[in-house]
Design a protein that fits this description.
Blueprint (H helix, E strand, L loop, with lengths): L1 H14 L6 H21 L16 E5 L4 H12 L3 E6 L2 H17 L8 E5 L5 H12 L7 E4 L19 H16 L1 H6 L3 E6 L25 H22 L6 E6 L14 H9 L7 H4 L1 H8 L2 H11 L6 E3 L15 H14 L6 H6 L4 E3 L2 E4 L1
Helix pairs in contact: 5-6, 6-8, 8-13
Amino acid sequence: MKRMMSNEIVSSNKTKKDGLGWMVWLRGWVNVLQEILLQRIMASHLHNPFPLPPLNNLTCIVTGSTSGIGSETARQLAEAGAHVVMAVRNIKAAHELIQQWQTKYYCSGKRLPLNIQAMELDLLSLNSVIRFSNAWNARLSPLHVLINNAGMFSMGGAQKFSEDGYEQHLQVNHLAPALLSLLLLPSLIRASQSRITSVNSVIHYVGFVDPNDLNFLSGKRKFSSLEGYSSSKLAQVMFNNVLSKRLPLETGISVLCLSPGVVQTNITRDLPRFIQDIYSALPYISYSPQEGCRSSVFSATDSQIQIYCEKLKTDKKSVCAFISQSCQPTNSSEETHNVETSSKVWEKAIELIGLPLNSLERLIEGEEVPCRYGNPYQ
């Protein structure tokens, strides 16, 4: 019996992965290069800016909306008539942007002002996520779209940790959006039909997640900003896969991730050298923020998204919807289809953000759920 148990342990250790297989890694980079080199061809059918229908009855929260893709997303949704909440760390910058947009909108001949406001949210503080969620839910207003847009890629390359003790890529790209999505469930349910959209990245195709070492502290893997970013983006997709699968159809909540494409930012400084060289040599392939937000506004507003997400659930698929930069449904990485790892990522995330393991079910039922990073939440 002892020998059998020993053999099982040895077998289990042998099957435990410490990284991507080289074939999966290679196919991942092929996907990344394809998006970098061919994104304008693949998205040649899209208009810029992306045409939106009237959105007067829509309420949207957009995180990280003072610059880049988030800024364009918030502005375009507001100009289409949506009530937009800019969930941002820099309130002053948000108010300045709102003033600029209001002035330009008024000068274009529009009589009514944009319905847009700013609320403070710092994803490097889980307590800030709690405060934001409490403040919003206290309004008892429906929330139709949550756009988890804010993200980070490298802070100079060094491994840094948040005030909560988590590696910063992990917290901003995965843990904080996960907590925000869960805590806003009562407002999302109140909207009858709503969506949680997470701005992801094609870089997740080369990511690897060890649920027991999300902070890169074991020494098994050497930390780099690329490893931190790709791992956190992969974890984000895995978490949303489980969230989508566990949310009952009756909640009316669609869960999806999206890729904005390669957008003009300075994040390429920590990509492999050959990727940097391609990016620098072919600047015309990268998107402007206005082009980069097209998959975000599409995912937030297109009427077919809900039908597609419901089909994935009824077909018992193990993944949530993933929308490409060309605004087409596509497959997320091979790793995201690993149901066992995704379940472990879910459980570890729930543990790290300080919620009980059955918090999803309790929040759906409207029960009070304690969180160790803030006051009990209902």
